[in-house]
């Protein structure tokens, strides 16, 4: 008989294992049949959930990942963690606060000792209650079907999966009891099972000593004990351990060490090459599956003691500063809030945990919303808790506003005699984020080494030392972090990076093997860097095959990183054989690599030349064509970009990577029908849909249909593999609908993916200008310029634009000139210069001519943007130079035959020339391309009225009124048409309806007066004409109108 519970396990393929007892599950884990990516439930009445949320299974997975799970291992056990207030051992052991932003001065050790006494609490053990299993198989090694509703047991042939570090519970674990009915399960198209639980979740009763099913990755007792010892021990003079002298091995011992190191390197390589699990893919899937959520509502019984207990567990997990630690902390903090909604500290620290998981979770509008709501809840009582300041400052720093983070901490400290020292860490991180490592250094040095409560302190010190150019000091700090927290993957990764930068990557083999043994501890982007460095190690060891495999995994995790792309091309060129065909392919990759080098230097035209050489070496490959298309996009040449993407798409008819670029340029070229056909094709294929969702959003955004665009952008952000450009696109949608406060978060996400792209920086500044005024945006951009930004011309032009918004035209012109000097080929400052000239139109007779020249300079540098040609068209229309105006429209037509409203503008030109017949033809052509264009419908109606076809005019005007019922111009022209048809009653009704919508339009009263006059109602006509002259006392036809008064 089995003494423990039974479980069922569902693989991602949908196959079911079970019912299984813990011993059987342990054996399956050891055989890598269960890897930690499955769903599981208690048998028979549990609900399907992530296997890591069942504590018994989570602990087994964690023990296996840490190498402690064996066939003969005994029963599972957990320990309670120690607790330190907020994020430091004790608050009292620090000297009185020096008000920020002045650098803090650490207290002397003797002073600290005199003020502090340390007490470590030992918690009572929690009694574990296990539910009775309904059915228990007789043989522990045998799996059988228990009843007819059980699915048959299936085995998953997949290989081993890396560490499930976010599993395992740190406390005494018990199963949460539920009295609710089984959930209803729904299945969606991609096979994902959605579980809908009716009613609220029951809160675990502390009186019964039962704990919720919460995973904790920190359950290893030895690991806890080691961390506890190194984090709570105080510095006591005279009690320092004697410094150990390093002994240099000699003779046979040295040979033995070298041989062991070589063996370690070989076995690490052998494991790496034999690995069949898609580690990179699994990491991306885990990031997609993790979503920040608000805590469950309290079921009606507040339990402050249990809430505080969970909060302390969360703090303990939080201190480890790695992905599984933050995930475990989030679960504990969430549980603390559920138990006691008044626990404001838990709200704040839950938000902080989520912020630290920003690179390891789905980043959509829900992420931003959840964090904002948690921060609002933490501020509900109007109390500025240190935990709240931590969470807010982190959020501000992560979203690209480090100055605001610093100011938030400074404002909090004003007038305070004491301060939680943890805040020093966060102000240091904010200074580091804004590129001011020198100012950051004093704050993070305020901690004595033996007072450091987290490896994050040493890690930040190391990053500051790196920024200041002291790699030796940086390595020393990373060593300190790893001495106390061996599992701190970020410090280990930076140690490898520093060694690699110093030309000594060979010494990092053991570190890299350790990192890749537990990949879950890093975010996808950091893991990509680990694979890149592993590729470098393989290259140094003359192992091209291993290097190529490693760089391919790096690119899967971070596919826009130019260093990784360059390395990939270099390795491909080196890897190809000696046949003539292979040599041609090698030369292709060599040229692609050279092109990437030029691109990193900002030499777009030189890069394009290299990509064209690559194309010549291998015309049958799509890779050079895609890179050529990319270059033409950067050069704003959409025609050539489209041609090259089209050729690449023909060579790769089922490649979403190629077709997503082609679809994008089709949308930019207004070829929406063709783009829609391509999107429909890929909707039916088993490919990543994020790019297709993003393209659909782009198409709607291009048509100013923001609601539909936002819906598709949200879908794109929820996908497993995300096109980073979607964050910029969604942020711009938020700007368009005036959600200026929300937009910077998404621009900050875009910067995390592509730090060299100036657009999210500029858009963030524009959002700040809308919320806090133009000066705020200018200050933000000036701060970016002080960092020695790569995009100086773009940022200077953005400052000029904000100066124009302020009405400071002279200052704007100065910034425009600086921008042009920084990059003479950058187009945008010429467009701003044209706006400056147009501002002087009433005082400078040559202003229009100067603006025409400036717009031409803009179009010469950005030939694919129709706005330059359209602006020149408008100026020529104003000058009544119709032939020149038409020439500008023809330039747009040559690039974009389906440019929206192109024929409408041409019709306006003919209208101004008095040629209503040609105007009506152009409006008709426009409506054939876009039958919902209200301006074209109204213009066509007006042209038909002028042509004497009042009845024909009512057809487009009626449609316009149907599309936009509140459009007063459509109603006014419909009234004029009825007047011409002598349908006076209908005309008057329409005039009055138009006046309700646009009471300030004097023409409406004049036209209505004429209608009253023609129908013989002179009294009503007199009243309408009087209203007209009151609004237009200097009207040109005043004398004629006065005859009827």
Strand content: under 5%
Helix content: 55-70%
- What value does the average pLDDT take? 78
Terminus-to-terminus distance: 108 Å
**Biggest sheet record:** 4 strands, antiparallel
Based on Cα principal axes, name the global outline. globular
What Rg do the Cα atoms give?
Answer: 34 Å
Enumerate the spans where pLDDT stays under 50 for 5 or more consecutive residues. 75-248, 252-271
The number of E-state strands comes to: 6
Class of secondary structure makeup: mainly alpha
Query: Major sheet: order of its strands?
Result: 2-1-3-4
Number of helices: 48
Care to describe what's here?
This protein has 1045 residues and is mainly alpha-helical. The protein has a domain at 1-83 and 121-229. It is 60% helix and 2% strand. The strands form two sheets. Strands 2-1-3-4 form a four-stranded antiparallel sheet. A two-stranded antiparallel ribbon has the order 5-6. A hairpin with a 5-residue loop joins β3 (39-43) and β4 (49-50). The radius of gyration is 34 Å and the shape is globular. The termini are far apart.
Please outline the helices and strands.
Elements: E1 6-10, E2 16-21, H1 22-30, E3 39-43, E4 49-50, H2 55-65, H3 109-115, E5 184-187, E6 193-196, H4 221-232, H5 251-274, H6 279-289, H7 304-318, H8 323-339, H9 344-356, H10 365-378, H11 386-398, H12 402-413, H13 422-433, H14 437-444, H15 455-467, H16 471-484, H17 489-501, H18 509-517, H19 524-540, H20 544-557, H21 562-575, H22 580-600, H23 604-617, H24 622-634, H25 638-651, H26 656-668, H27 672-683, H28 690-702, H29 706-717, H30 725-736, H31 743-753, H32 758-772, H33 774-786, H34 792-806, H35 809-822, H36 828-839, H37 847-861, H38 866-878, H39 882-895, H40 902-913, H41 916-929, H42 934-946, H43 950-963, H44 968-980, H45 984-997, H46 1002-1014, H47 1018-1031, H48 1038-1042
Antiparallel strand pairs: 1-2, 1-3, 3-4, 5-6
């Amino acid at each position: 008989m089995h003494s423990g519970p039974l479980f069922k396990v569902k693989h991602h393929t949908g196959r079911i294992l079970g019912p299984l007892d813990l011993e059987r599950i342990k054996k399956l884990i050891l055989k890598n049949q269960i890897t930690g990516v499955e769903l599981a439930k208690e048998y028979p009445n549990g609900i399907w959930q992530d296997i890591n949320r069942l504590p018994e299974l989570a602990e087994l997975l964690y023990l296996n990942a840490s190498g402690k799970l064996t066939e003969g291992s005994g029963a599972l056990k957990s320990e309670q963690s120690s607790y330190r207030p907020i994020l430091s051992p004790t608050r009292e052991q620090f000297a009185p606060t020096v008000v920020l932003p002045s650098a803090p001065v650490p207290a002397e050790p003797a002073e600290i000792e005199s003020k502090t006494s340390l007490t470590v609490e030992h918690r009572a053990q929690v009694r574990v209650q296990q539910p009775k299993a309904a059915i228990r198989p007789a043989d522990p090694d045998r799996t059988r079907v228990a009843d007819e509703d059980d699915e048959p047991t299936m085995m998953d042939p997949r290989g081993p999966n890396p560490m499930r570090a976010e599993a395992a519970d740190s406390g005494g674990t018990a199963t949460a009891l539920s009295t609710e009915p089984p959930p209803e399960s729904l299945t969606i198209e991609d096979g994902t099972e959605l579980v809908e639980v009716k009613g609220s979740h029951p809160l675990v009763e502390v009186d019964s000593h039962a704990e919720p099913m919460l995973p904790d990755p920190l359950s290893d007792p030895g690991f806890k004990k080691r961390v506890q010892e190194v984090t709570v021990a105080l510095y006591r003079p005279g009690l320092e351990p004697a410094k150990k002298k390093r002994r240099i091995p000699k003779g046979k011992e040295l040979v033995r060490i070298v041989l062991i190191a070589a063996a370690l390197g070989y076995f690490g390589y052998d494991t790496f090459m034999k690995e069949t699990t898609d580690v990179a893919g699994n990491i991306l899937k885990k990031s997609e599956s993790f979503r920040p959520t608000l805590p469950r509502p309290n079921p009606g019984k507040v339990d402050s003691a249990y809430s505080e207990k969970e909060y302390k567990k969360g703090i303990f997990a939080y201190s480890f500063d790695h992905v599984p630690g933050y995930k475990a902390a989030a679960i504990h903090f969430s549980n603390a809030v559920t138990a006691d909604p008044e626990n404001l500290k838990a709200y704040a620290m839950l938000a902080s945990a989520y912020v630290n998981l920003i690179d390891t979770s789905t980043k959509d509008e829900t992420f931003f919303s959840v964090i904002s709501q948690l921060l609002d809840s933490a501020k509900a009582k109007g109390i500025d808790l240190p935990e709240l300041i931590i969470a807010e400052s982190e959020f501000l720093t992560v979203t690209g506003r480090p100055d605001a983070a610093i100011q938030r901490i400074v404002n909090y400290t004003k007038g305070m005699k004491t301060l939680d020292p943890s805040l020093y860490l966060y102000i240091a991180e904010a200074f580091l984020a804004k590129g001011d490592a020198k100012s950051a250094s004093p704050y993070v040095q305020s901690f004595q080494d033996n007072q450091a409560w987290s490896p994050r302190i040493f890690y930040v010190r190391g990053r500051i030392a790196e920024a200041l150019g002291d790699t030796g000091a940086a390595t020393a700090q990373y060593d300190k972090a790893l001495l106390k927290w061996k599992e701190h993957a970020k410090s280990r990764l930076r140690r490898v990076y520093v060694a690699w930068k110093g030309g000594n990557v060979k010494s990092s083999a053991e570190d890299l093997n350790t990192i890749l043994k537990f990949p879950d501890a890093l975010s996808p982007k950091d893991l990509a860097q680990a694979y890149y460095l592993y590729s470098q190690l393989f290259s140094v060891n003359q192992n091209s095959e291993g290097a190529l495999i490693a760089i391919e995994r790096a690119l899967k995790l971070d596919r826009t990183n130019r260093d990784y792309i360059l390395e990939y091309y270099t390795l491909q060129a080196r890897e190809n054989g000696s046949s003539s065909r292979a040599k041609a392919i090698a030369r292709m990759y060599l040229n692609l690599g050279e092109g990437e080098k030029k691109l990193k230097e900002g030499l777009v035209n030189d890069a394009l030349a290299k990509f064209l050489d690559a194309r010549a070496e291998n015309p049958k490959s799509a890779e050079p064509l895609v890179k050529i298309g990319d270059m033409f996009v950067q050069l704003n040449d959409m025609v050539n970009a489209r041609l090259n993407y089209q050729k690449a798409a023909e060579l790769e008819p089922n490649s979403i990577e190629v077709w997503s670029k082609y679809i994008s340029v089709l949308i930019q070229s207004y070829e929406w029908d063709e783009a829609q056909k391509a999107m429909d094709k890929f909707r039916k294929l088993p490919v990543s849909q994020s790019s297709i969702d993003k393209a659909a959003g782009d198409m709607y955004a291009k048509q100013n249909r923001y609601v539909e665009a936002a819906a598709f952008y949200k879908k794109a952000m929820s996908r497993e593999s995300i096109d980073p450009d979607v964050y910029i696109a969604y942020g711009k949608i938020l700007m368009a609908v005036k959600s200026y406060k929300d937009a910077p978060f998404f621009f900050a996400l875009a910067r995390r993916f592509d730090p060299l792209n100036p657009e999210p920086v500029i858009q963030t500044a524009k959002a700040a200008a809308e919320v806090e005024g133009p000066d705020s945006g200018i200050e933000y951009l000036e701060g970016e310029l002080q960092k020695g930004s790569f995009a100086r011309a773009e940022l200077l032009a953005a400052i000029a634009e904000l100066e124009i918004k302020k009405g400071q035209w002279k200052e704007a012109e100065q910034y425009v000139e600086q921008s042009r000097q920084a990059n003479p080929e950058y187009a945008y400052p010429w467009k701003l210069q044209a706006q400056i000239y147009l501002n002087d139109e009433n005082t400078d007779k040559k202003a229009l001519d100067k603006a025409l020249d400036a717009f031409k300079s803009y179009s010469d540098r950005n030939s694919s943007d129709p706005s330059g040609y359209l602006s020149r068209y408008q100026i020529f229309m104003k000058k009544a130079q119709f032939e020149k105006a038409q020439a500008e429209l023809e330039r747009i037509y040559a690039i974009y035959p389906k440019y929206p409203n192109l024929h409408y503008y041409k019709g306006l030109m003919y209208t101004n020339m008095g040629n209503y017949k040609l105007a009506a033809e152009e409006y008709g052509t426009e409506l054939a391309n876009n039958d919902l264009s209200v301006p074209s419908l109204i213009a066509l109606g007006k042209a038909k009225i002028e042509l004497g076809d009042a009845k024909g005019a009512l057809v487009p005007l009626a449609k316009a009124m149907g599309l936009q019922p509140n459009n007063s111009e459509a109603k006014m022209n419909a009234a004029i048409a009825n007047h011409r048809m002598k349908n006076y009653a209908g005309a008057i009704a329409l005039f009055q309806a138009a006046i309700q919508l646009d009471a300030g339009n004097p023409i409406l009263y004049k036209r209505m007066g004429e209608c009253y006059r023609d129908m013989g109602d002179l009294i009503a006509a007199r009243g309408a004409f009087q209203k007209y002259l009151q609004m237009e006392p200097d009207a040109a036809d005043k004398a004629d109108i006065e005859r009827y008064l």
